[in-house]
Amino acid sequence: MVIETQGLTKRYGRVVAVEGLELRIEAGEVYGLLGPNGSGKTTTILMLLGLTEPSAGQVRVLGLDPVREPLSLKRQVGYLPDSVGFYGEMTAWENLSYIARLNGLPPALAKARMERVLERMGLAEVAHRPVGAFSRGMRQRLGLAEVLLKEPKVVILDEPTLGLDPEAAQEFLKMIQSLKSEGITVLLSSHLLHQVQAICDRVGLFHKGRLVLEGRVEELAQRVLGGAYRIRLEATPLQGLAERLQALPEVSRVQAEAQGLRLEATQDIRPQVARAVLEAGAALQSLVLEQPSLDEVYARYFQEVRHAA
Amino acid sequence: MQRSSTSRRREGSPWTGLWAVFFKEMADHLSSTRMRILEVLILLSAVGAVYAGAQTLRQTISEDPFLLLRVFTAAQDPLPSFVAFLSFFLPLAAIALGFDAINGEYNRNTLSRILAQPIYRDALLWGKFLAGLATIALILLALFLLVVGLSLIFLGVPPSSEEVARALLFLLATLAYTGVWLGIALVTSVLFRSAATSALAAIAVWLFFALFWGIIAQLLAQAVAPFDPFDPESELRQTEALLAFSRLSPNTLYAEAIQALLNPGVRSLGPVLISQLEGALLGSPLPLGQSFLLAWPQLTGLIALTIGLFAVAYVLFQRREVRA
Ligand SMILES: Nc1ncnc2c1ncn2[C@@H]1O[C@H](COP(=O)(O)OP(=O)(O)OP(=O)(O)O)[C@@H](O)[C@H]1O
Ligand SMILES: [Mg+2]
């Protein structure tokens, strides 16, 4: 177990930021922390790194206690904060070499590693330019370069794709994925669910400081969406179709959308749906079975929470 | 040092990474625009001091065993004496170097990145403090050499070893005095998130001591030990109270310390202002050791004040959340 917490709790005065967190992350996993704003993701990350002291509970990262053994822990754990900043008047190289010195790397080793990580992040050409002139994407890559500088066993990324354009985000996610192939354990927080779905082995959903759902994306879909098959269809005209389809015994739910309808059914009933549409005298334009997405799990979960409240 | 909130033992040394921080901050200071401005001021002040010293000396004595020390304390209208200039300029220089030490890291979003490295907060704070102090020491040394060099050229008298020793002790006292202001700037840089507010607050403290503390000390002394025309001792008590109150100010401590160190004729310390130092009467000179003993309480007071302020900054910083 690389990251393990027991009853981890953080209170800021009367605000409970994280409550009774039981997190277990195994070596080599990519784990995604999800949750709405203010649900306690960043607070959890800070406690894992010993940057904030827990109010209660236990943390072990690589078997180390972040409060008592912060130095050996931080030597092996890389952290990319959500708002990453550098010394703007210093070059990328100087910024990295400061970090290398803080890590106590001998100069020769530091130089070799800095060249390697800058190359890997595609920053070799701009290494000697002041960071003040870097774009958001370049800063983020420099941040990851810095994280890799200490050759960490665990990498913790807080909203790593925040503010990146889609292409840069995609590229960044690929870099994160490449860490997994090196055996690095990755913990990341994000709001961009399809990205999380694409690269995370497991995800944990936070809500008001509690970990309310956890598991592989398919498992969560099973649990939250009740194992339903979701079928999306486009047809014209739509009038009267919804009632007709609702009448099918396997259909549990029909939802109107801009272009067509969305069904939830207990089985894959595309043939029956096609027949029903044709019998109604409408023209069928498309009919697809959707893969369960994290977006949906997320939306549905919070819908239910709101209903329950 | 121990953590403020807990007394658990921590792993490793709190100084890990201290030198990395120190050298980075030092390089920052030395290459900054602030430093260029300070350098211009240094040059002007050194030239002014030697000029004023030379003018006064030509008019007065030719046989003075402490010629170099006269250069430090001689004033020539409209120029203030060198020590008066230093006591005015150095607090501002210290504030300029320290006012954004910690809040600058917050504002650049670099703090959480730095603290995620294997160092303690102690190292960051100490590194910044020592770098500021070393920068000031460098400025002082440059100033000192300039003044000594220029006065050698213009006055043509090499300083005696006692003079050099006194001058170096004076530098030490000045460094301790500057340390106090660096400590104040460090505290405001932890307290206030905005660099401008922090600078303003530190300057407000400086103004308070430079302009208002004298008056307040007087009022306090009058309140504590009222003057009674029928009691001959009441006047003495009031003077003593005034002395005690005014010694709460680092400016008074510094003025007294350098008075003892630079003026071998001074045999006891009373509440004096730097302006009174200029042209103070020479008695028979005190040996260096005696002058040093005279200045000792003031020196330790300044150093203790510096350490106290650093401790306040330390405790405040340990409790700060890394998140802005
Ligand atoms: N220094 C602080 N003082 C008081 N409350 C705080 C402090 N820091 C965080 N909080 C509170 O703790 C809760 C959790 O915040 P946290 O930043 O961990 O959420 P998050 O999940 O990272 O949110 P986001 O997605 O917006 O980054 C919030 O309610 C926040 O207001
Ligand atoms: Mg956050």
Account of the protein in words:
The complex is a heterodimer of chains A (309) and B (324). With 309 residues, chain A is an alpha/beta fold. The two termini of chain A are 36 Å apart. In chain A, the strands form three sheets. A six-stranded mixed sheet of chain A has the order 6-7-8-4-9-10, sandwiched between helices. In chain A, strands 1, 2, 3 and 5 form a four-stranded antiparallel sheet that branches. A four-stranded antiparallel sheet of chain A has the order 12-13-11-14. Chain A is built from eleven helices and 14 strands. Chain A folds into two domains: 220 residues, Rossmann fold (3-Layer(aba) Sandwich); 66 residues, Alpha-Beta Plaits. Chain A is elongated and about 75 Å long. Chain B has 324 residues and is mainly α. Chain B has one domain. The N terminus of chain B is likely disordered. Chain B starts with 17 loop residues before the first helix and ends in a 5-residue tail after the last helix. In chain B, 73% of the residues lie in helices and 0% in strands. The chains are: A alpha/beta (309), B mainly alpha (324). Chains A and B meet through helix 1, helix 2, strand 6 and helix 3 of A and helix 1 and helix 6 of B.
Topology:
The complex is a heterodimer of chains A (309) and B (324).
Chain A: E1 3-12, E2 15-21, E3 24-25, E4 30-34, H1 41-49, E5 56-61, H2 70-76, E6 77-80, H3 92-102, H4 107-120, H5 136-149, E7 154-158, H6 166-181, E8 185-189, H7 193-199, E9 202-207, E10 210-215, H8 217-225, E11 229-236, H9 241-246, E12 251-256, E13 260-265, H10 270-279, E14 283-290, H11 294-308
Parallel strand pairs in A: 4-8, 4-9, 6-7, 7-8
Antiparallel strand pairs in A: 1-2, 1-3, 1-5, 9-10, 11-13, 11-14, 12-13
Helix pairs in contact in A: 3-4, 3-5, 4-5, 8-11
Chain B: H1 18-31, H2 33-59, H3 67-73, H4 82-98, H5 103-107, H6 111-115, H7 121-155, H8 161-191, H9 195-224, H10 232-246, H11 250-262, H12 274-277, H13 288-319
Residues 12, 15, 17, 35, 37-43 of chain A line the site of adenosine-5'-triphosphate.
